[in-house]
């Protein structure tokens, strides 16, 4: 199954694609934690994750067509 | 040779008596600047010793101070700022607000560090400063114009494109308590109603044109430091703040649960944030970078909306705070409508944060049936109604109609008029509407907001950045702070408040922090400018000292611990989103407040102790007892 992963802000440095978005082929039952580890992204750098716009934990299992968004902490003025 | 051996100060200020129409040039000794640095620190000193408690904000005896610091002499990156200080008509206490653009450095080039206005003119005037030529001129022909019209009219009248204009619009003229001061249609002394103080004095504008250069201590060193930092912040921010402005952070702040949603009662709004934040913001508004003087980031935006006709505009675009307070706060996801609301606030000259707060408060009042008098019940604005939001901006900015009259003195009297239930959910601290950063997303903001010098403020103390790796290592914040940790949040809040005070005295832009600039580099620039060779300890102590000075102004004006509080809603956790189940508790809040007062050297009522005043050489303040 295929999921989209979007990397936000300074996490873009972990993305293989310059536009900060990749498609991944994953097995059924794959968790977000497994995806992060596979992409070699340190877990503590991704405190906020959403799947299809809902905030989830890293234990969440992804489904076909899911859109994952990975966020660091950002703040503005 | 590189060395100038100056100190970044002229040592001169203008004292303008608007009642008598007299202008005096006053000497300011370096010894005073070593106590207060400049900017907001100098303003606090004037307020403490020259504006007694019985003076009300709109009384002629209230003073309005425009103050630069030493940094405005050096042209380093991030130094295009200045502070304005007075007793606020919104809160009744100390207020300072900072502006950017080119006015501050422009004013410095005229040969003065500061201006203190007092009295009240009997007709509209503007102050013209062209080096040694300083005079009050008739502004009757500009009275009634909005800030953009005023700026253009003055440039045409004076036939000079090199002038820099700080002016008020209708909101300031009509004494709307959230009125702002607008510089060159670009930058805004936004908060606390300082524009209304100008209006109360019939002061329409201050126009500056200067050709002089104020000497710094080591010009070569300063330029070297500025080049290094300028390059670093440019590299760090070229794809975020430079490319998209503060709209860059919208999607991330909503994801963090930091953006206000539905007047702080909502939890999440991801689709809305994607619509109003970057990159959509940049595409839809055709947004481009607009720099302040000498800045390598250029975070401000200029935008262009061509259709629909009702939102047509060209000029300064909404920043994050406005996107938060007119967007998520109101559930308005049309970025063009938000840009229009922003433009109206800019033109009328009023604070977008408070204006957005008033609209959100109104939406909730209607929802709860608290505005069902025959006078207004048909207006019935619901969440997301962008065109009624725009109608409200017109009313509030002009001080007309039901909302113009309801909100003209701020949220406290407005809520009081509507009753106890409304007072309970009015989201402010000391009368200053809470800005677009949620203390439930960053628990250090709880103490920060409650104890801030001008009310609920995310810049007079910006501890939220400690959770994103922007640390103050020299002040003892050496590791990322857990954003949901209340324990020790008093220490975190205090240190970022001290940093915040320093930036408002120097006067310097905090966004340099987002380019990796640290306290040591800030101190290096300070020493290269002044030649004072302060240690880090002296530098940080100055921040503590001036923060306590500001507190003494507020103590004089009647502030105690009972005012250092948050609205109840800030203790109610979200049900979904990244801050679900997490909110400061009142119990921990009180414990941390006790600890905060200990850190500050204040007593349990929030009043600086004699020992603390002695430490900061302010013992005169209790010798009179």
Structure, explained:
The complex is a heterodimer of chains A (77) and B (625). By secondary structure, chain A is mostly beta strands. Helices cover 9% and strands 30% of the residues of chain A. Chain A contains one helix and five strands. Chain A has one helix at 32-38, and strands at 2-7, 21-25, 48-51, 54-56, 67-71. The longest helix of chain A is centred in the middle third of the chain and has 7 residues, at 32-38. Chain B is of the alpha+beta class and 625 residues long. Chain B is 39% helix and 13% strand. Chain B contains 25 helices and 17 strands. The radius of gyration of chain B is 23 Å and the shape is globular. Chain B starts with 11 loop residues before the first strand and ends with a helix. The model of chain B has no long low-confidence stretch (mean pLDDT 96). At the A-B interface, loops of A face α9 of B.
Spans of at least 5 consecutive residues with low confidence of chain A: none
Helix amount of chain A, in percent?
under 10%
Helical amount among residues of chain B, as a percent range? 25-40%
**Termini distance of chain A?**
40 Å
Largest sheet of chain B: 6 strands, mixed
Structural class of chain A: mainly beta
